Amino acid sequence: MSASTGFPSGSLFTALSRNWWVVLLFGLFAVVFGVLAVMAPVRTAAVLAWWLGVMAVVEGVVVLVAAIKGSAPVSRGWAVFYALVSIAFGVLAILNPLATASVLLLFLAAWLVVAGIYRIVFAIRVRKQIEGEWLLIVSGLLAVALGVMFALNPLSGLVVTSLWIGVLALVYGVLQIVVAFRLRSLGKAA
Question: pTM of the full predicted structure?
Answer without folding.
Answer: 0.53
